[in-house]
Specification:
Elements (H helix, E strand, L loop, with lengths): L19 E5 L7 E6 L5 E7 L7 E4 L13 E4 L2 E7 L5 E3 L7 E2 L3 E5 L2 E5 L8 E3 L3 H13 L5 E3 L11 H7 L10
Parallel strand pairs: 11-12
Antiparallel strand pairs: 1-2, 2-3, 3-4, 5-6, 6-7, 7-8, 9-10
């Protein structure tokens, strides 16, 4: 482990020149996840390493609806290496390090440049992860109408376009608080 100064090929880990997404948690940097896709766009699966990448174990090639390559993002909660989110438009969440997953929220289908969203009757509180400026704002608004306490991670995206949004929402009556990372 040398902070990425050198890289080596993983044994038994062939992606046929596909894409891979890497996730690392700040509190447990030895825990790594890779969500990988083959060149044809099919999902190859999710792998986890508990020793900084020296060894890898496939966590789930089954149980998830295979996400297309552009949805294969993998994210780990900064303070909990067992909390994993795979996908972007139709994400799946694991709270046991990728051993099992449950579908998160709505059914979203992309048709060209249009996203068709089949929502749920009522939103439930959850820990969610923002991926960009608009996603941050959307997740905050969804969290405000959801029942329970919602935690939005990676809100640093928000600060690029919505200065002190939590103060403005509080002034409008929202129960919202920014937590320190």
């Amino acid at each position: 482990m040398n902070s990425g100064a050198t890289w080596s090929r993983l044994p038994n880990f062939t992606l046929d020149n596909g894409d891979a997404f890497l996730a690392i948690t700040a509190t447990s940097p030895a825990v790594l996840y890779v969500s990988a896709h083959r060149r044809d766009g099919s999902w190859a699966g999710l792998w986890r390493s508990d020793d900084g990448g020296a060894t890898w174990h496939q966590r789930s090639a089954t149980g998830l609806k295979t996400p297309p390559w552009y949805q294969g993002l993998v994210t780990v909660k900064p303070d909990d290496p067992s909390w994993v989110l795979v996908g972007s438009l139709s994400p799946y969440r694991s709270t046991d390090g990728g051993a099992s997953f449950t579908k998160v929220g709505a059914d979203i289908h992309v048709d060209g440049r249009v996203a068709v969203i089949r929502g749920v009757p009522k939103l439930s509180a959850a820990t969610v992860m923002a991926t960009d400026l608009r996603a941050s704002a959307s997740l905050i608004l969804a969290g405000l109408v959801a029942g329970g306490k919602t935690e939005v991670l990676r809100v640093y995206h928000l600060d690029r376009g919505y200065e002190r949004i939590e103060k403005k929402l509080r002034a409008a009556g929202a129960k919202i608080k920014r937590m320190k990372a």
